[in-house]
């Protein structure tokens, strides 16, 4: 089966950030089509479909048509996108695929391409009036493979605190979730050399940012300190 992952494009510097949604993963057979459209009572099961299913992709936005666009994968693994006569348009890398209520052929899409569904209405003042902006990744390309560089960096991180048995234990596991710290994971290393999964430590980071209070050794540091001053 071929796969696609759609992730929201988030730009906090822009007033038009688009609708936020959790990343969506779908799998399909060759030549199968997955519709993209607006959430309705008839397709509400698709909104809660498990990751990796072949259910339609739906968004809770009124600027998205009920049947807005189609994604298709050919037997050679190449992906294509088509606008399905949507009223507010489908944009591929900021280029509109077809005019309103018109349907043209499929357009090729590749890793890293951006898709936008519709245009903001009423300035996007509410989520239901926001367009959908997303980045495409195909055929498990988002799944990072461990290479020698990843292993070397991970080993160097563990060697930061190998002076004691407690240091060895702390270097190999996250003190918050107690799971191991592995290569290719998003990690945060504090100036006191303690480390955690970024997802686990993030609430602590943002609570008093830029000051950081280490939950392991209780030391305090300034995360905005200039590099030259450290």
Keywords:
230 residues, alpha+beta, Tumour Suppressor Smad4, Herpes Virus-1, five-stranded mixed β-sheet, EC 2.3.2.27, Znf_RING/FYVE/PHD, SMAD_FHA_dom_sf, FHA_dom
Write the layout of secondary structure elements.
Elements: E1 2-8, E2 24-28, E3 33-38, H1 44-47, E4 57-59, E5 69-73, E6 79-83, E7 90-92, E8 95-96, E9 107-109, E10 114-117, E11 132-138, H2 148-158, H3 165-172, E12 187-189, E13 195-197, H4 198-207, E14 211-213, E15 220-222
Parallel strand pairs: 3-4
Antiparallel strand pairs: 1-2, 1-11, 3-5, 5-6, 6-9, 7-8, 7-10, 10-11, 12-13, 14-15
Describe the structure.
The chain has 230 residues and is of the alpha+beta class. The chain has helices at residues 44-47, 148-158, 165-172, 198-207; strands at residues 2-8, 24-28, 33-38, 57-59, 69-73, 79-83, 90-92, 95-96, 107-109, 114-117, 132-138, 187-189, 195-197, 211-213, 220-222. It folds into 2 domains: 2-138, Tumour Suppressor Smad4 (Sandwich); 148-229, Herpes Virus-1. It is built from 4 helices and 15 strands. The strands form 4 sheets. It has a 6-stranded antiparallel sheet with strand order 2-1-11-10-7-8, with no helix packed on it. A 5-stranded mixed sheet has the order 4-3-5-6-9. Strands 12-13 form a two-stranded antiparallel ribbon. The longest helix is centred in the middle third of the chain and has 11 residues, at 148-158. The N and C termini lie far apart (50 Å).
The CATH topology of the largest domain is what?
Tumour Suppressor Smad4
Radius of gyration: 22 Å
Series of secondary-structure elements, N-terminal to C-terminal: EEEHEEEEEEEEHHEEHEE
What integer is the average pLDDT? 86
Distance between the termini: 50 Å
Q: Specify the CATH architecture of the largest domain.
A: Sandwich
Secondary structural class: alpha+beta
Shape call:
elongated
CATH class (first level) name of the largest domain:
Mainly Beta
The total beta strand count reads 15
Low-confidence stretches: none
Instruction: Give the strand order of the largest sheet, numbering strands 1, 2, ... along the chain.
Output: 2-1-11-10-7-8
Number of helices: 4
Number of domains: 2
Helical content (DSSP H or I, runs of 4+): 10-25%
Largest sheet entry:
6 strands, antiparallel
């Amino acid at each position: 089966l071929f796969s696609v992952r759609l992730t929201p494009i988030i730009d906090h510097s822009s007033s038009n950030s688009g609708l936020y949604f959790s990343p969506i993963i779908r799998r399909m057979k060759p030549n199968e089509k997955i519709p993209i459209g607006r959430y309705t009572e008839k397709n509400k099961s698709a909104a809660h479909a498990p990751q990796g299913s072949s259910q339609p992709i739906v968004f809770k936005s009124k600027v998205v048509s009920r049947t807005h666009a189609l994604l298709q994968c050919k037997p050679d693994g190449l992906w294509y996108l088509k606008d399905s006569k949507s009223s507010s348009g489908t944009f591929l890398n900021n280029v509109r695929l077809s005019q309103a209520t018109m349907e043209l052929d499929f357009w090729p899409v590749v890793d890293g391409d951006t898709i936008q569904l519709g245009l903001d209405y009423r300035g996007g003042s509410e989520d239901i009036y926001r367009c959908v902006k997303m980045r495409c990744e195909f055929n498990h390309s988002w799944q990072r493979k461990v290479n020698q560089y990843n292993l070397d960096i991970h080993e160097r991180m563990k060697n930061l605190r190998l002076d004691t048995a407690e240091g060895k234990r702390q270097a190999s596991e996250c003190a918050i979730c107690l799971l191991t710290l592995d290569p290719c994971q998003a990690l945060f290393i504090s100036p006191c050399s303690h480390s955690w999964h970024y997802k686990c430590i993030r609430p602590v980071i943002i609570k008093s940012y830029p000051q950081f209070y280490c939950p392991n050794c209780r030391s305090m540091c300034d995360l905005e300190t200039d590099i030259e001053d450290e």
